[in-house]
Specification:
single chain, 22 helices
């Protein structure tokens, strides 16, 4: 008993399709709305066409007695068309069509063609109730209308044949029930599709925002390295490269403009000149190779972005040589080799182990790779080269100096594009979208059509079997093979992948459609006996399956033509025996063809509206993305504002304006302090989405209090903003316990349990012991573990 109750509960839930399941989303954007809009449009148009067909037929068959009915049918058809563009509820339209068909049916029982058309109007009204009235009242309303109609028909001459009344009721109940069950399943699918698309778009948006933020921050950090940090380092180092004070002041002025741009100020900066390769403050430059005109001609071929990247790589290499190589000068050689521009920088300094640098640097005082990260000018040059489509190679031997070779493809005169040696570009990880590829709208619409076709054919087959059991006319036992052909059509469809073997599938399903039509007619002598029992809907099942199979239009046209020819030949053959039977056969054939055409129109509408919905959804997505990206850019600008670039701007402005001399010891010491601060700031990489904004204030706080603060971080981020805030709060508390002039080191790196924060307090006095604290944060909620 409990199993039966559960089955009934599931059935009732399926029949009770609430409006919120389909239309609470924008019909112009979401699949559910597009699907329901297509069904609504085609159903209303089909019902209106049937009403306009019955109107003249009523006048022809009933004469003046049919004028009132004809007028009512025209009004009903116009109302259905108005419902396409106005919010007229479908329930009263369906009830009016149902009732009007029942009245005509009882008034003209002897007119087979008119009575057949009116029964189909009632069938369409039942379909409208099941498909368009999305509320709990649809099913009971349809059942009530059906039983009232049955009572009217029972009191008419049709009541003499109880099979007619029984089949009429059964057909309406089946139409409403099957339509409702199919609709519930299809809406569940399209709603799941909508949710999947929404989830995919959210993931795609987050991935794009993260990728954009990382790319923007990475580029801005490189700009910071190329400009202020390198300039401050050159001035602090005080080599011969800063002897030209006019050049130093010009570079400082340019750096000030770029720093203000980082903070979000709208300032124009002239494009980098390729000759800036030789104008960097730092070491003395010896130039070889191409002259100015040749270099500028090459720069026109690579474009301003690549030129800027080249100048940045040279600045990075020169600053590294100035600080670490021990060399007094650097040699820059430029040349054109084939379709590439080559820039080679060489110093005669100490050299270094390139492999060790590429493998990463380890935080002093820590064991193992937990505090290891790839840093330094080598990775910076490689990443910049990869981002701009050229190759970079750094070679160095301890004691023999360092060489940086940049190879840039020039635009090919033949192709107008770039020729890139992919093998020469170092393989560094790139940021890719984390969003999975979702089902395309066309794929979703195809699956929807496929399922709907199966539902239709299955419902028609089950309905035919129910009518057979209920005692429908079955002369020559024709209904048994008819149902067999319907099942065969389902088997062919289910065992053939969509779009596969179109010619073979078209042939078999067309043969099934013709066989079902002929057998359904043979069961009642093609209208000569029991015409009211003719199940014209049965023949639509194989053709709807053919539509759902997705064959090419030429195959559909051939199948439709073959089916229409079968109907025409049948009508001609029957006409020799009975004109009335021929008219009934023609009516059944036209109805079957019309239903198939309506289904084809629904498919076309679903595909078209789904494309429109997809386009509208993409437009909305890109609009939102534009807004989100702009907001993300503003957040990045605020991050630089919060980073405390004001000191660097004031210092560089003072040097640019000549207020202080670049070679003054006080100026050099100020540049040392500011360069160290900016370098620590730049190591807070863009991948630290949660931790980065929380660590920047610790640098500002330490500088404001005059604490010798060293911050070391890797690329491991906190799991959320709350966890990042707890780490920064702990660092601030440690800084508060540190006196001005004392040293304080904070290191954040990943461990097996989460993120570990190590804080080391020390003073300049040798007798003062080190104060070390290690905290492990395993989550935003858990208390840190003290080690």
């Amino acid at each position: 008993m409990s199993v039966v109750i559960r089955m009934l509960r599931v059935l009732f839930t399926r029949l009770h399709v609430e409006r919120s399941e389909a239309l609470d989303t924008d019909p112009d954007i979401w699949a559910a709305g597009a699907f329901m809009r297509a069904v609504s449009r085609v159903t209303l148009i089909g019902c209106a066409a049937l009403a306009f067909t019955i109107a003249p037929l009523a006048i022809v068959r009933l004469g003046t007695a049919g004028q009132a009915f004809a007028t009512a049918e025209v009004i009903l058809g116009v109302t259905m068309l108005l419902a396409l563009v106005t919010p007229i509820p479908p329930a009263p339209i369906a009830i009016a069509a149902f009732g009007l068909g029942a009245i005509i049916l009882t008034r003209a029982p002897e007119l087979a063609a008119l009575a057949s058309a009116t029964t189909w109007q009632m069938n369409f009204a039942s379909f409208m109730l099941g498909a368009l009235v999305l509320s709990a009242v649809a099913v009971p309303l349809g059942l009530a209308a059906t039983f009232l109609c049955a009572m009217l028909v029972a009191a008419s001459p049709h009541g003499a044949d109880p099979r007619f009344t029984t089949s009429l009721v059964l057909i309406q109940v089946l139409i409403v029930t099957v339509t409702r069950l199919a609709l519930a399943s299809l809406l569940q699918y399209v709603n799941n599709t909508d949710r999947a698309i929404a989830d995919s778009e959210l993931e795609r948006k987050e991935a794009m925002l993260q990728r954009q933020a990382i790319a923007q921050m990475s580029e801005q950090i490189r700009v910071l390295h190329d400009t202020a940090i390198n300039t401050l380092g050159a001035i602090a180092n005080g080599n011969s490269g800063v002897s030209d004070m006019a050049q130093v002041r010009a570079q400082c002025a340019r750096d000030v403009t770029l720093l203000r741009q980082l903070r979000g100020e709208r300032l124009s900066v002239p494009d980098d000149d390729i000759l800036d390769l030789f104008r960097q403050p730092g070491l003395r430059v010896t130039r070889r190779g191409l002259d100015d005109d040749e270099l500028r001609a090459a720069a026109e071929q690579v474009g301003p972005d690549v030129t800027r990247a080249l100048v940045g790589c040279v600045r990075e290499a020169q600053t590294n040589a100035m600080k670490h190589s021990g060399a007094d000068e650097i040699e820059i050689t430029t040349s054109i080799v084939g379709l590439t521009l080559r820039i080679a920088l060489r110093d005669e300094g100490h050299g270094f182990d390139v492999a060790a640098v590429l493998h990463g640097t380890t935080i002093p005082g820590e064991e193992g790779p937990r505090a290891r990260k790839t840093t330094g000018f080598v990775s910076s040059i490689h990443e910049r080269a990869r981002a701009h489509g050229f190759s970079a190679r750094v070679t160095s031997v301890l004691g023999s100096g360092t060489t940086v070779l940049l190879t840039v493809p020039l635009r090919s005169a033949a192709t107008g594009g770039f020729t890139v040696d992919e093998a020469a570009v170092p393989a560094f990880p790139a940021v890719e979208s984390a969003a999975p590829r979702s089902t395309t709208p066309r794929d979703a619409a195809t699956v929807l059509i496929n399922r709907a076709g199966v539902f239709w054919a299955t419902g028609a087959t089950i309905g035919s079997a129910v009518l057979l059991i209920a005692g429908s006319t079955n002369l020559h036992f024709a209904l048994f093979p008819m149902i067999g052909f319907m099942v065969l059509a389902l088997v062919i469809f289910l065992r053939t992948p969509p779009g596969a073997a179109p010619a073979t599938t078209t042939l078999w399903l067309t043969l099934c459609a013709c066989a079902v039509f002929l057998l359904s007619g043979a069961a009642n002598e093609f209208g000569m006996q029991g015409w009211t029992q003719w199940n014209a809907i049965a023949a639509t099942a194989p053709y709807v399956l053919l539509l759902a199979h997705g064959v090419a239009p030429r195959f559909l046209a051939a199948a439709g033509a073959a089916w229409a020819l079968c109907i025409a030949v049948t009508v001609a053959a029957v006409a020799a025996a009975s004109t009335t039977a021929a008219l009934v056969t023609l009516t059944a054939g036209v109805i079957a063809l019309a239903v198939s055409a309506m289904w084809s129109a629904i498919q076309a509408q679903v595909l078209r509206l789904n494309r429109q919905a997809s386009a509208a959804r993409d437009t909305l997505f890109h609009t939102r993305m534009t807004t989100e990206l702009a907001a993300g850019a503003q957040r990045i600008h605020r991050r630089w504002v919060d980073a405390g670039l004001d000191n660097a701007v004031r210092l560089l402005s003072a040097i640019a304006n000549g207020d202080i001399a670049a070679d003054d010891p006080v100026s050099r010491q100020a540049c040392i302090v500011e360069e160290r601060y900016l370098r620590q700031l730049s190591q807070i990489g863009p991948d630290l989405v949660h931790l980065g904004p929380e660590l920047v204030p610790t640098l500002q706080y330490a500088r404001a209090r005059g604490i010798d603060y060293t911050l070391r971080v890797t690329g491991a981020d906190a799991e959320d903003d709350a966890a990042a805030r707890r780490i920064s709060t702990q660092i601030i508390e440690g800084l508060q316990l540190t006196s001005p002039g004392q040293r304080f080191t904070a290191s954040v790196f990943p461990t097996r349990d989460g993120l570990q924060l190590t804080m080391v307090h020390a003073t300049e006095q040798d007798h003062h012991p080190l104060d070390v604290m290690e905290l492990v944060y395993s989550g935003s909620d858990a208390e840190p573990v003290v080690r």
